[in-house]
Amino acid sequence: MPRLKSSTLYGWLLFAPAGVMLTLFAFTPTVATFWQSFFSRGTARRPSRFIGLDNYEAMIADPVFWQVAKNSLWYAIGTIPTSIAIALGMALWVNSKLPARTLVRMAYFTPTILPMIAAANIWLFFYTPDIGLLDQLGRALGLGGHNWLGSPSTALLAIIVTTIWKEAGFFMIFYLAALQTIPPELKDAATIEGASRWIWFRRVVFPLLMPTTLFVLVNAMINSVKLIDHLFILTKGGPNNASKLLLYYVYETAFSYFDQPYAATLTVVILVVLGVLAVLQVRGLDKRIHYR
Amino acid sequence: MTRNRLSLGRLLEVGAAWLLALLWIAPLLYAFWAAFHPAAYVTRFDLFAPLTLENFVVAWGYAPFGRYFLNTFLLVTLILAGQFFFCTLAGYAFARFEFPGRDLLFALTLLQLFILPEVLIVENYRIMAGLGLIDTIIGIGLPYMASAFGIFLLRQAFKQVPRELEEAARVEGCGFLGVLLRVYVPVARPVYLAYGLVSVSTHWNNFLWPLVVTNSVETRPLTVGLAIFGAPESGVNWAVISAATLMVIAPLLVAFLLFQRQFVQSFMTAGIK
After folding, report:
1. A23 CB within 8 Å of a chain B CB
2. What is the pTM of this model?
3. Helices (H) and strands (E) in chain B, counts
4. Taking CB atoms and an 8 Å cut-off, how many pairs form between chains A and B?
């Protein structure tokens, strides 16, 4: 009996430091975000007061919010499947008997370790009209110049391309790790059976990679919410909000327009999206923990 | 013998893999080109263009990069030390102790994998202001220290330590902290290395929260400094921006090229668990 008690005490003591930190910088701010979203913006003359759901009504009536929500959705649709597909292709290549394999793997992986800000600086130059690399390339092919970041029809696309370039190599790593756990006997068996490489991939490799794909998918979804650093360099959300994403709008509302309650209201939308993702994933994660 | 013969299809595939690799590394190669040549050659690819270090000299003199390097170095060190401390203790608690509320606490901790500090910038800013930690390096680091990711990784690592090792240490008179330091931490060393590499490269590159919390040269990390430096309003030319960009990424890039295998392995370990 006394053994059980000391175990409880030690358990709590050991968790306490991290518990305090998590409470201060994760749990409290999460709850406070919801709470704050029910208050009005305080000014020097009029202090902030409880206004119920007014901020949410304002949000629903805010055309910029809808534009930003739509952009974020397109950003997710544009980046997630493409970067996962490229990552899978990269992993299969790097895992096969490829000449100069180490060099190729390094090339794929390098964008992962670069800061997004630095990457954006380089890409900015590609996209710059006239003198930019893309336009020069276009001219060489006899195409007209185009203001990639300055026109509403291509700004978000340019952002998406940069994101895919940054992310694919990172996701490749997870596929690579999973591919290396596939026993070579399986491949031998398939060869004896006379299975083509496509059948081998479709029937054996792809299903075995399913847990990895789910893991990468959730990661990609989280990234599509939080990966906004390049906006600060490339477009600042413009032109005319065409490339503005939700988290960037939160930043702008809180720290450029100083409307913290409305920023909190927008954050609630992000929290709800992430919460749904968390519920979906923790179920899967839970299973893996129990297997161990 | 068919295996050794390169068929046309295989040849095309190798070509495609190489082309993709070239495409993926091209932006970085281009940054090298622009940084090491005079501004006039930014878009003129002449094999015999003169090489120069002038752009680096100009960039270094334009902004306090020395200070930014120091700030980033202090920041990643502080965060790593904090993470090792908080995550080791909590991971140990979750791995080896039975206590009421453990599973609930673990589930709540895992929530932080989704509700990242980046998302909570608005409220975390208010909390930091309340603590008087705006514009301090410790203020940038605090929200990341009790990392759910680290706690989870170390818990998994500690769970695999055989009980017999612990019993042996106990017989020799180790207390519960002694067991942690003498048995668990040494066994989990590869996990610490992997987590450390991932953490350092993450926080070397982190931007949004440091941007929000800092507002002076004394605290700004490299990424924020680079963003201000490269802003089109600053009127700095491409060659110089490329040089500054390369300076910022150089330490990580060099480390990556030297320890490529460890880097890739670390990201793998961190990912599978």
Report:
1. no
2. 0.89
3. 15, 0
4. 265
